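Table 4 source record.
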Amino acid sequence: MLPIIEALLVLQDRDRRLIRLKAELEAVAPQRQLLQLKAAKTQAAFEEVRKRNVHIESERKRLELEVVTMQQRINKLRTEQLGTRSNDQYKAYQHQIETTQAEISRLDDQQIELMEQAEAVGRDVAEAAKVAAGQKAETDRQLVDLAAREANLRKDHELVSAERAALAAKADPAGLWRYERILKMKGDNALVGVHRVVCGGCHVKLPMQTFLHAKAQLELTACTNCGRLLYFTPDMDV
């Protein structure tokens, strides 16, 4: 095999590895964001349930204070009722007392309802807290693993980049220029094999003269259809 082709095949292997490593590195940030978003959603769900629980408790305490205020009002009305000598005034005080007692009874019913809601929401809070804590622990573990994987990928990328640079420095400049030009246009298949007189890149049948030039391996030969560089080895099926 032509030495430049051997050199370019090794170089192409490094370029393919670099492309794969770059893609994996670029995928790290979205993966990290996805993990963080998942944990944030479970935490937000917990906060929402917790706020409901706080609101219910706050409302219950408000009603409790309102009942105390009304009870004090009843005590005051009864004191004033005892001091009146007017029968009509006495009945008016009694009506206010009974109306306030009815309101207290209504508020007591509301408190009971809120207590029942608080009990149910309390269970939801406990479950949501458990889920959020579990998700956070799992997310933290996955983020640590992802960070370690990212560090390894960066290390591999640096090593392969250094290898690639060393190989490129030793390659024939003209052949390297042709290879890199095709690489930019075609991706990771700049140098392809020939199988049954067909280009391994575009899979189009080669003219016989092009095939024979590729088989002879005397100079760099390009596919007349896609422009990729061709190589041929004895084990390829003619």
